[in-house]
Amino acid sequence: MDSLIPFTTSGSLVDCVDTRSLSFFSAICLQNETEKMLVMLRDGRKLVGVLRSYDQFANLVLDDTIERIYHGSEFAEKRVGLFIIRGENVVLLGEIDLDQEDEIPLQQVQYEALKPIYAKGVADKKLNDHNKAQVLFEDKGFCREGGEGDGY
Asked: Which residues cross the membrane (predicted)?
């Protein structure tokens, strides 16, 4: 079911929902294909899975979910199964082109081998961000993140 609805609307997500779990009538109304989706979360995690359901708050249900981590020219995957994501944690949601997914220009390695390197990179980035925030606070007059006046 091709539509002219821009991807930023909820209506375009209807095409990406897996219809195997829906009733017969609902399945007829929707496309009968499974779509792999990439979800980036606020904490930096990247999840790939089949979109089973969503709501108006961007709460998502992903099935056959894989968590991917990247470092340099390497990546690793870990199966996490069914994943329920609260909408406020979603930064990006996008459809994966299945033809191009197999042509990832990165080298796949074991998850256990890459996890400590990835964790160190995340910790280094967090420390660097903290140091930058400290400089902005002390030298430039910015407020601390989460402090008074840092509301929406």
From this structure: none
pLDDT, residue 34, reads 64
- Entry pTM: 0.69
- Name the β-bridge partners of 34: none
Strand partners, 79: 66
Residue range 3-24, pLDDT digits in tens: 544 555 556 666 666 655 554 4
pLDDT band at 100 (very low <50, low <70, confident <90, very high): confident
114: tokens are 């890459």
Report yes or no: 61 and 52 within 8 Å, Cβ to Cβ.
yes
Give the CA angle between residues 6, 66, 54 to the nearest 5°. 40
3-state secondary structure 108-149: ECCHHHHHHHHHHHHHHHHHHHHHHHHHHHHHHCCCCCCCCC
Collapse the DSSP code of 120 into the 3-class scheme (helix H, G, I; strand E, B; otherwise coil) and give the result. helix
Can you say how many angstroms the Cα of residue 63 is from the centroid of all Cα atoms in its chain? 13
Residue 140 has pLDDT above 60, yes or no: yes
Question: Using the 8-state DSSP alphabet, how is residue 143 labeled?
Answer: P
User: What is the per-residue pLDDT for 89?
Assistant: 93
